[in-house]
């Protein structure tokens, strides 16, 4: 069911410093910061040959990563995103097997303009998983 | 400098259950468990079209992931591995910029039979990074 690893998302307390680390120290290609007010984050994309790293910084008062950074002030890996072809079929398969989908179970439009769902870390080896329909 | 994302490593408290989650619930192709006594882990490889997930379980008395699982008993994302062409050149560049390489700074032969180094999470957005020469 799951396809490509779409991205690894890293929450960072200082977006400029994180972008400089990836650009200057690790020598990767990084984008300009991109504000995503609907998703409560500003994002820098790190383009690798086979996938992306997304450096996420809170934007606005209800950022979904504010709590994570309060617990891990130095930042850390926040989630991994797998691609699926049909997000409703994926959700139904997961729920039929007893896995928990976060929120009300209805896909939202994610930061890439495509339908996404998040899965409960307790059902997936302690890691937060995003599914994105591609 | 960094190239492909070689893998994302997830430490898991129950390798059989984690493999079943990826195989049956997420519908991915997973390998049989592979003992890596020299590295203190048993690994299940999850093959995605563009990269791998490695499910790691402690093996032996001095596993490098035992401490992580003691702090996070449900498991979690342990590290991400980026490929480099020349690990000594990568190390020298990182150290020249003040980034800390773990251990004595000399590459070790990693679980894939290739030279690897680990970088200090405090210098890389709170995430443990492995570099592997390919």
Give a verbal description of the structure.
The structure is a homodimer of 134-residue chains. Helices cover 20% and strands 35% of the residues of chain A. By secondary structure, chain A is an alpha+beta fold. Chain A has one domain: 2,3-Dihydroxybiphenyl 1,2-Dioxygenase, domain 1 (Roll), CATH 3.10.180.10. The longest helix of chain A has 11 residues, at 15-25. The A-B interface holds A 1-5, 8, 10-12, 18, 21, 24-28, 48-51, 53, 55, 72, 74-77, 80, 82, 93-94, 97, 99, 121-127 and B 1-5, 8, 10-12, 18, 21, 24-28, 48-51, 53, 55, 72, 74-77, 80, 82, 93-94, 97, 99, 121-127.
Report the CATH architecture of chain A: Roll
Please trace the helix and strand order of chain A, writing H or E for each element: EHEEEEHEHEEE
pLDDT below 50 for ≥5 consecutive residues: which ranges of chain A?
none
Assign the CATH superfamily of chain A. 2,3-Dihydroxybiphenyl 1,2-Dioxygenase, domain 1
Number of DSSP strand runs of chain A = 9
Helix content of chain A: 10-25%
Q: What is the global morphology of chain A?
A: globular
What count of helical segments of chain A does DSSP give? 3
Give the class-level CATH name of chain A.
Alpha Beta
The major beta sheet of chain A can be summarized as: 9 strands, mixed
SS strand fraction of chain A: 35-45%
Average pLDDT rating of chain A: 97
At the fold tier of CATH, the topology name of chain A is: 2,3-Dihydroxybiphenyl 1,2-Dioxygenase, domain 1
Q: What separation lies between the terminal Cα atoms of chain A?
A: 12 Å
CA-atom Rg of chain A in angstroms: 15 Å
Q: What's the quaternary structure here?
A: homodimer
Give the count of structural domains of chain A: 1
The structural class of chain A is alpha+beta
The chain pair with the largest interface is: A-B, 40 and 40 residues
EC number (chains A, B): 5.1.99.1
GO molecular function (chains A, B): methylmalonyl-CoA epimerase activity
Keywords (chains A, B): Isomerase, Metal-binding
Family (chains A, B): Belongs to the methylmalonyl-CoA epimerase family.
């Amino acid at each position: 069911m799951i396809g490509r690893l779409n991205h690894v998302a890293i929450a960072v307390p200082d977006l400029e410093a994180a972008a400089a680390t990836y650009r200057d120290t690790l020598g990767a290609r990084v984008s300009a910061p991109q504000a995503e007010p609907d998703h409560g984050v500003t994002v820098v994309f790190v383009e690798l040959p086979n996938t992306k790293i997304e450096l996420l910084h809170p934007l606005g008062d209800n950022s979904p990563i504010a709590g994570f950074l309060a617990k891990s002030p130095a930042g850390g890996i926040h989630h991994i995103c797998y691609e699926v072809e049909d997000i409703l079929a994926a959700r139904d398969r997961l729920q039929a097997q007893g896995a928990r989908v976060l929120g009300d179970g209805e896909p939202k439009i994610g930061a890439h303009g495509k339908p996404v769902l998040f899965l409960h870390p307790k059902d997936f080896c302690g890691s937060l998983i995003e599914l994105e329909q591609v």
